[in-house]
Design brief:
single chain; 219 residues; mainly alpha; globular
């Protein structure tokens, strides 16, 4: 599989993922009549369903859609380190493209800085936990049940929307892009740094622990 085809799959998948997250957030908020819980439920279901469909669609080529997944895969020796930067650049650029796609569908400005405050220890700790769990699910399933990864990842994200205070971004590209949408799914630009640091730390610990935990026995 050529690098260009893998990058194309990553770009398309990431763009559609962000369009799903932001578009369903806008739709949910508009239809919920001020009921934030109902809007979040709509956003959650759409995101989980969209994520499963996208991983199933692009998984045979490449379906990270997330810089920390790419870094973890390289750390485990599943992809060359020289491909990491192109992957991450494409993921970030296409995440912003996904924001623009959603905004155009709903008549919003192409980009707008979010004012949604997401700061403080509880938010950052939530992102650490959410990202740790996501990488644990991916690594564990890849060892035992690789065909179930799309459903396991989607199920985990649906759950993490509700059991984390941050609603589980667990993705630096998603975090950066969501700072450019002043809608339901947004995050204030000044809050993104803490989220990304927590995500990187969670991914690093999960990769260290889970590669040991799920290693194949030599016996």
């Amino acid at each position: 599989m050529t690098l260009s085809r893998r990058l194309c799959a990553e770009g398309l998948g990431t763009a559609f993922l962000l369009a799903t997250i932001v578009g369903s957030g806008i739709m949910g908020e508009r239809l919920a009549g001020g009921n934030v819980g109902l809007a979040l439920l709509a956003n959650t279901i759409a995101t989980g369903a969209g994520l499963a469909a996208l991983i199933l669609t692009f998984g045979s080529i490449s379906a990270h859609f997330n810089p920390v997944v790419t870094l973890s895969e390289a750390w485990q020796g599943h992809m060359p380190w020289k491909h990491v930067i192109p992957y991450i650049v494409v993921q970030i650029v296409c995440a912003f493209a996904g924001i623009a796609i959603a905004h155009l569908m709903f008549g919003e400005p192409l980009f707008s800085a979010s004012q949604h405050i997401r700061t403080g220890f509880s938010q950052y700790w939530s992102e650490f936990v959410a990202t740790f769990g996501l990488l644990a699910v991916i690594i564990g399933c890849s060892r035992a049940r690789p065909h179930f990864i799309p459903f396991a990842v989607a199920s985990y994200i649906i759950a993490a929307y509700w059991f984390t205070a941050s609603t589980s971004f667990a993705n630096p590209a998603v975090t950066l892009a969501r700072a450019a949408t002043h809608t339901f799914a947004g995050i204030r630009p000044s809050d993104t740094f803490g989220f990304i640091v927590a995500q990187l730390l969670g991914a690093m610990l999960a990769t260290l622990l889970c590669t040991w935990l799920f290693q194949k026995s030599s016996a």
